Amino acid sequence: MTGYQLPEWARRALRRNEAWTFAILVVLVAYFSISAPGKFFTVYDITQIAVNAAIYLVLGVGMTYVIITAGIDLSIGSVLVLSAVAAGEYTIHHGAAGAGWDTVAVSIVIALAVGAAWGALQGALVATGKIPALIVTLGGLGAALGLAEIATGGQDPSGAAAAHLQNSLGYGKVLGIPWLVVLAAVVTVVFGLLLGGTRFGVHTFAIGSNPAAARRAGIPVGRHLVKVYALMGLLAGLGAVMWLASYGTTSIAGHSTDNLKVITAVVLGGTSLFGGRGSVLGTVIGVFIPAVLTTGLIVVGVQQYWQDVAVGAVLVGAVYLDQMRKQTRERI
């Protein structure tokens, strides 16, 4: 007598990292729903979790590309702040909160351009300077934040976001769904398709798997890395626009742990820190784990300090699992 065997499609699904990550997410939702009955996973909670996760999802998409190339970007929080300050300063000097749509459009372009340029610079240093990405982006973290503080005197300027931007992208909804969530979903789909279905995505995976082999195959490794880091910067600039729209301030001191949260989400989603493996779908699931964890801890009354401890512990656990997966693959 033979035991019951799962269908092939189910076994294939269970072998995917995304399946296990999704299972962790379900367990967290179930735990907090039982711990705080009637207070967690309400429509309000779901909306807030989605809104809070929107910016980290945009950043996570870019970080997925970077980590697949076996790189890292620790500067994303500071790049977001610098982009927000650049856009905010333009808005302040062109009408402030009462600025028109033309000012809003230019400030958005400024935020995207600053982020992309900073990312491209870091990519060039990694690709042509042969400096480890960890060192380049750690320096970028301090330099970008320092420039933002020099420009503002270390204080969040008032009037950094136009009312038009806040009332539309920040607070607006379409079919009951916040525009921030819609924008994050569009970015996720577009760059998920780019990673999974284009030559750009194939080159990204090839460089992360074996850069020497990718170079021998004719892939312009250095130029591609510059594009990947520029993409990360561009999405950090978009994150700055979303932050200004949502909170109306540059929050100079409020993004010190963005890199921790985003890297945690990406690794939780199955993207390997050793490069060559990952997916945007996994990142989507991974982003919601810290968001659910943070919201759940607030609902059950855990102090904010412990929330960072919990996220850090999840990151260490995710890296440990990634190491185990790598060793398992090498034994096969």
List the helices and strands and how they pair.
Blueprint: H1 8-15, H2 17-35, H3 43-68, H4 76-92, H5 101-127, H6 133-152, H7 163-170, E1 173-174, E2 177-178, H8 179-197, H9 199-209, H10 211-216, H11 221-247, H12 258-268, H13 280-299, H14 304-331
Helix pairs in contact: 2-13, 3-8, 3-11, 3-12, 3-13, 4-5, 4-6, 4-11, 5-6, 5-11, 7-11, 8-9, 9-11, 12-13, 12-14, 13-14
Main attributes?
14 helices, 2 strands, 74% helix
Give me the strand/helix succession.
Answer: HHHHHHHEEHHHHHHH
Q: Between the first and last Cα atoms, what is the distance in angstroms?
A: 30 Å
Helix content: over 70%
Counting DSSP E segments of at least 2 residues, the number of strands comes to 2
Main beta sheet: strand number and arrangement? Answer: 2 strands, antiparallel
Low-pLDDT segments: none
Q: Radius of gyration from the CA trace?
A: 20 Å
Strand content: under 5%
Mean pLDDT: 88
What overall form do the CA principal axes indicate? globular
Helices, by number, come to 14
What is the topology, as strand order, of the major beta sheet? 1-2
Secondary-structure-derived class: mainly alpha
